[in-house]
Amino acid sequence: MIRQKITYGQTFCAVEFANNSTYNLLSLKRKKKELDITKKEKLHDFETLIIAMKGQKHFFLIVNNEQVLTKRVAFTHIAKETVVKNAFPNIGLNDFYYEVFDNGASSIVSICRKEVVQKVIDQFSGKGISVIQFSLGNTSFQKLLPHLNDFRFHTSNAMFDVSEHKVVKWEKSEEVLKSYDVNGLTIDSNGLLPLAGILAYYTGIEKSLEEELQNELALEYRQKRTFQLGVRVGLGALLVLLLINFFVFSSYTNTVADLKEELSLNQVYKKQLLKLNEQVSKKKTLVESMNSVSNSKVIWYFDQISKTVPKTISLSNLSYQPLTRPRRDKKPMIFNTGEIVVKGISKDAMNFSKWTAQLEKLEWVQKWSTKEYELEKSKHTSFDFVIQMKDK
């Protein structure tokens, strides 16, 4: 059953090529374990038939037109060629396709020239539709016997009396359109033979094939179907691989994007770190510079200054390497290296001038510069000046 689903899918179709170039089309679709009718038409043009069969890739062909000769003989034999020769003694078997309906005590034999059948098959093949098996005349009717009650049945050009699942009477008949119930399916006269054809390959046509062409048709379709499925599976696998490759590539691209973003952040952090290191280095250099002068040296500077201070001058502040600006949060501290700020009050301007001149003559003093010199109400003068030390 699984193999059948893979080979034929869910839709089964049969076409009867009947008298006067008419086509009886029947299409059934498998739903669970039942077959439902999806299409039932009588058509009078081949191109119209092809349009009606759109999407169908395989079907069972019944050739039942004026080119088919049918005869009933009161003769049966295990060798079908013998039955055919009994019905048509003068035909060349190599030139004809034949089919025998063994009805127990009698046989119904149908024959048709090979070129006629092949022409019909080639017509459908040219449209991309595969004939997987064919039947001649009304011989496919035997496939329906297990499903029919005792009754008279009409096909497109014959009449069958059925009793106990056997044909008790058969004769050619003009078209009589009637409807029948076959296992729950409502089928008219024109649909009986196509239904028999569908049952032939729905139940497993490979078990009943005897003609060389029948085998070739079934094998050709299976090979074609295998190729189509192989292409689909191959394309599907290729698509899956492409999807996997796409997802892997997308993941790789996203990873690369994340890494680039992380690298960009790291570059920012690196610049910030270098900036901090630079600031730390400057502070370290400053601290080292400050520490390079020992406390005793600073005291020595202050002592040198204090020794020169006249009695008329009072010092209020001595600052060694003071800050360039008041300390602020998140702002770096910058020191005026090599400077001493001197602040105080002078009672005598003359003595202040002599004192600053004396300071400027000290060996370690490069120069001094006034920051502030202001006369107060008590005739005292406040001063604020900077001593620049020489580099050593």
Keywords:
four-stranded antiparallel β-sheet; Gyrase A, domain 2; five-stranded mixed β-sheet; rod-shaped; Nucleotidyltransferase, domain 5; 3 domains; 39% helix; 392 residues
Describe, in plain words, how this protein is organized in 3D.
Mean pLDDT is 83; it is low at 205-210. A hairpin with a 2-residue loop joins strand 12 and strand 13. The strands form 5 sheets. A 5-stranded mixed sheet has the order 3-2-1-4-8, sandwiched between helices. The two termini are 106 Å apart. The protein is an alpha+beta fold and 392 residues long. Helices cover 39% and strands 31% of the residues. It is rod-shaped, with a radius of gyration of 58 Å. The longest helix has 81 residues, at 212-292. It has helices spanning 2-8, 46-52, 80-87, 114-125, 192-202, 212-292, 295-308, 349-360, and strands at residues 11-18, 22-31, 34-43, 58-63, 69-73, 96-102, 107-113, 130-136, 151-154, 158-163, 166-172, 179-182, 185-188, 313-320, 339-346, 365-375, 381-389. The chain contains 8 helices and 17 strands. It folds into 3 domains: 2-210, Nucleotidyltransferase, domain 5 (2-Layer Sandwich), CATH 3.30.420; 219-290; 295-389, General secretion pathway protein M, EpsM (Gyrase A, domain 2, 2-Layer Sandwich), CATH 3.30.1360.
